[in-house]
């Protein structure tokens, strides 16, 4: 097929971001806005001295985590020089005035990451991983609705006025108000990007590596195949061209359903947009925004083109593999100066741009060259390598709070619970994240029907996991769940089939964290949990405490639990006494402390926590000397939370009690660093803001206050809350 098309070439590079460029917004002819993982939004203005170049004229600071979607507000009376709307991982939607470069509105309401923003006349519509669409007007939330049954990844407004959303549930929905007028079904994986195709309908980009063109009736008009990895973004031009950005490092240009050019990048292409004149802007994971042109007078000079070609070459060389190993990971020729240890021992070294194999000749005491190493058929799968080991998957996991991205390796033959435990230990992360990590692994490796091997050993109890499961055979037919830790021997303790189903229902609600804002528990669910807490023996109670621990983090669960505790016998205090009584079981003790600590997340529990402060701290007082490091850390966290609460309540007696407990931790020689640090922060906070400074000085701990001076802004910790996982498969 002959297609009339003029190839794009590099025009200029916009450098300034310190991390991945995640989003692009074309701001009429005024300039270009970009968002980044570095938490900033940059506005780029055309350089008056060189019409092909842009310079960073404004840096917008306000988001506390990486920034994604952007929308342009054309100049008007309120924004004479235009404005921007941005959404971020921090759940915020921010509105910016470009004239001042200042944030003028903070729109709070989403529970999880904001994935899309679009303008609907003067309203702002935002989408989120929390599965909702929200409409904002003049800085206020005017309506919202649960638009999909999975995270929403993108939202746009089409010229006829409807809103269109794309989701991880693989569907696209067209909305007239809050009513779904059309559902587009066809993609086999997450719908990641949407754009209007003028005069035709809409185009979509998906994790299934395809692009689809749709009529507004929901009919698929065309499917475009060419990318080899997730397609993140899509855009169209009045000329009929389409551009897409992908994990495979290419921005592809399409005409009449055919890929006519692939623009290679030294990293993932997160976003790609057309300028009005047909030029293309791309956002890359190397932190650089690039502009590509078909206009000869805007093409970069020869030195810039050579530099980019060299950058691409170096990038590909750094990722080149020989025999499944990265070339740059191989030793140089100097490695051949070290004698071998046995006849026939082989060694692969780097020679220039190639890997060369040598064999050790024991008789001659020399390395003999065997030849150049090439990849065989199996190596073409590009299995990722981490720390010199090849895996089926290596995921990037962003746990937020300014922490660096962590690498999570996994092989399909691994038990996901075992893999999660090993990773949490290696990364020194709380075991409260365990179930979420497991679900993340299963979702991103396509193992939705995974069933647990009953031989798995739980790291807390040494027994099989209490998570609902069955033998490890993979089955497409779901079996009735069994619960390993439910007592069966004693009839008066065993659960009925109805009660078992109620526990399963509770677990299902707790696992669906994206709907905590709208889900609720039946009163009988809480009654059942409290009954089990009261009647089950310590040896069997661990799973009940753990379910309770997570129920406390659910807004409705915490409220219902408090009502039961206030109206009936205080089963929670009975639980604390049960888990702390000798002989203690580490799993019960650890989970019990974490359950109590989670109560600090909900202010309605503050009075109860203050009232029972003495009993709680006395019950757990021996934990500071526990040989279990996780128990030590959890106890220190409990102490820190109490310090902040009792300062707020101006409870001098309570502050003295907490100070004494914190000092015990600080003086314990065998205490882990993290645990001791939290105790020091508690001490410093009490001395700087509490009523016990004189008592603290009597203990001769004045110097400790300086260690924890930064704690003046400490809030009550929300320990145990779920983390947001943003994955990009390597």
Structure description:
This protein is an alpha+beta fold and 730 residues long. Helix content is 27%, strand content 29%. It contains 16 helices and 38 strands. It has a four-stranded antiparallel β-sheet, with no helix packed on it. The protein has a four-stranded antiparallel β-sheet with strand order 2-3-4-5, with no helix packed on it. A four-stranded antiparallel β-sheet has the order 6-7-8-9, with no helix packed on it. A hairpin with a 4-residue loop joins strand 15 and strand 16 (172-176). Helix 6 (542-553) runs parallel beside helix 9. The longest helix has 20 residues, at 629-648. This is Phospholipase a2-activating protein.
Provide a compact summary of the structure.
The chain is built from 16 helices and 38 strands.
Secondary structure topology:
Layout: E1 9-15, E2 21-27, E3 31-36, E4 40-46, E5 54-61, E6 67-73, E7 83-88, E8 93-97, E9 102-107, E10 114-120, E11 123-128, E12 132-137, E13 140-146, E14 152-157, E15 163-167, E16 172-176, E17 179-184, E18 191-197, E19 201-206, E20 210-215, E21 220-225, E22 231-236, E23 242-246, E24 250-255, E25 258-264, E26 269-274, E27 280-284, E28 288-293, H1 302-319, E29 321-322, E30 325-326, E31 346-351, E32 354-361, E33 366-372, E34 385-386, E35 389-390, E36 393-397, E37 406-410, H2 416-427, H3 434-444, H4 497-511, H5 523-535, H6 542-553, H7 555-567, H8 571-580, H9 586-598, H10 606-611, H11 613-619, H12 629-648, H13 652-667, H14 673-689, H15 693-698, H16 702-707, E38 727-729
Antiparallel strand pairs: 1-28, 2-3, 3-4, 4-5, 6-7, 7-8, 8-9, 10-11, 11-12, 12-13, 14-15, 15-16, 16-17, 18-19, 19-20, 20-21, 22-23, 23-24, 24-25, 26-27, 27-28, 29-30, 31-32, 32-33, 34-35, 36-37, 36-38
Protein name: Phospholipase a2-activating protein
